[in-house]
Write a structure and sequence with these properties.
With about 475 residues, this protein is an alpha/beta fold. Helix content is about 35%, strand content about 20%. Bound molecules: S-adenosyl-L-homocysteine (SAH).
């Protein structure tokens, strides 16, 4: 090991930065974040560096570097464009056994700056021992994506309760097990969702009765419109933590596959008018599984709160006092429109957009059609394939021009995505000829005209 990773406490420590350009400014940002008392020695400095120093009680010595600048400093960073000066700083610092870093010259460093993933107070440092900063950055990006933004809050929470737990569970291994369960379970999810008080209540309750069954929790997770890459980080994380996954027809198999291998998978698929598992049974199943102490992920296509009956599923959970969270997903309208190159709003064509159910509970498409006449509003019909003739007819009867463009996006965002384009007058025939496969989304309005010019890019960008 060429460098031993350690974490320095720099609060109020005097640190010298030699140089005042862009590179020096970057280092200064980091040093003041760690609370260092910074002195910069350089004939010139960037405006940002000057402002940083002013904001953090730093000091600018407007001069060239001299060996006496090292006096009284805890460590030094050299970031000048002049190799001779940098080497001089290194030699002088070594003589005094002062830690020194010459930016971008690992051989002139007794310490180096790792790339960091900052979830304060949690820190992850990544280093290639100066060999490949780019590789380090790539790895950092991957870790950034993997570590929830709220892990810092969780670390703070754990720190705050550490002593309490220590006092309550004396035995080391039992305490470790306790923390493992807490930091990877319901309590952690509560804390990361900002419910620290509730997290603490659950933790204290568990401390009182460590034999108690863990309480289950239900996550209503939006799985997006099809492309697995459109899942949120949070959705992916919760999926991997679930004991049971309930999913329906709209959720791509590759997304269900992201669950833990040993997780139970339950298909509760739904097709229009052919509900494999009735909604009331799904609601009850969620409650039963949570009461057994399971972490349940209920995957919903798109967004759970957009025509997803998410509201009904959580009502029963709430009645039973079961903890739940709803994780938004990219709804079909957003996904399909982007991938089809149809902006839902546009300064020249549409100032508003309306998501409309193309199929109602009673099997009709009864809307107050008189409210749909605005030509500057884009309409997006979900579940609209069966009702398409009524939709086209009613919109025309209520003032929309017959040549208003209509697009039907079939299996939006998936590799099978296909787009049919017509007008209110022609769309029924277009669809009758093409026989599109579900799920389909219907977009009505002038924005559809942009599809021709933007679609190619949309498709290329998404594949
Ligand atoms: N909660 C979902 C919508 C469920 S209603 C969401 O937010 O997207 C089911 C309807 O969504 C389908 O009838 C269809 O109109 C639309 N839909 C869902 N996924 C789609 C996709 N990949 N492409 C086109 N339409 C889709």
């Amino acid at each position: 090991m060429e460098f031993l990773p350690v974490c320095l406490r720099l609060t109020e420590s005097p640190v010298l930065l030699v140089g005042g350009g862009e590179v020096a400014t970057r280092k200064a940002r980091l040093l003041v974040r760690a609370g260092a008392a910074l002195t910069v020695v350089s004939p010139e400095i960037t405006a940002e560096l000057e402002a940083l120093l002013a904001a953090h009680n730093g000091c600018w010595k407007k001069a060239r570097y001299a060996p006496s600048d090292l006096d009284g400093q805890a460590l030094v960073v050299a970031a000048t464009p002049d190799a001779a000066v940098n080497r001089q700083v290194f030699t002088d610092a070594r003589r005094q056994s002062m830690p020194v870093n010459v930016v971008d010259s690992p051989q002139l460093c007794t310490f180096i700056f790792p790339a960091i993933v900052d979830r304060d107070p949690l820190l992850i440092a990544i280093s290639s021992s100066g060999r490949s900063p780019v590789l380090t950055r790539i790895l950092r990006r991957k870790i950034e994506a993997m570590v929830p933004a709220a892990y810092g809050r969780l670390a703070g929470f754990a720190g705050r309760l550490r002593q309490l737990v220590k006092d309550s569970i004396r035995q080391d291994s039992a305490r470790r097990l306790f923390w493992e369960q807490v930091l990877d379970g319901t309590v952690a999810e509560q804390v990361m969702a900002g419910q620290e008080a509730e997290g603490e209540r659950l933790l204290r309750q568990r401390l009182l009765d460590t034999r108690a069954l863990p309480v289950g929790e239900v996550y209503l997770v939006g799985a997006g419109p099809g492309d697995p890459d459109l899942l949120t980080f949070k959705a992916a994380r919760l999926l991997q933590s679930a004991d049971v996954v309930l999913y329906d027809r709209l959720v791509a198999p590759s997304i269900v596959d992201m669950a833990r291998r040993d997780a139970q998978r339950v298909y509760v698929g739904k097709r229009r008018a052919d509900h494999s598992v009735p909604q009331t049974e799904i609601n009850q199943l969620l409650v039963d599984l949570a009461l057994q102490g399971k972490r349940v992920v209920r995957l919903k296509g798109g967004d759970p709160f957009v025509f997803g009956r998410g509201g009904e599923e959580i009502e029963l959970l709430a009645e039973h006092g079961i903890a739940f969270q709803v994780i938004p997903g990219i709804t079909a309208a957003n996904g399909a429109a982007c991938y089809a190159g149809i902006p839902l709003t546009h300064r020249d064509y549409a100032q508003s957009v309306r998501f409309v159910a193309g199929y109602l509970k009673n099997g009709t498409v009864d809307h107050d059609w008189s409210t749909f006449r605005s030509t500057t509003e884009t309409l997006v019909f979900y579940m609209g394939l069966m009702g398409l003739p009524v939709i086209c007819e009613q919109l025309q009867a209520h003032g929309r021009a017959a040549d208003t463009p209509v697009a039907l996006v079939e299996r939006g965002t998936t590799l099978e995505q296909n787009i049919l384009v017509g007008t209110l007058a022609t769309m029924v025939d277009v669809v009758a000829r093409a026989q599109p496969a579900a799920p389909t989304l219907i977009i009505v309005g002038d924005v559809v005209r942009l599809h021709q010019s933007l679609a190619w890019f949309g498709a290329a960008a998404s594949r």
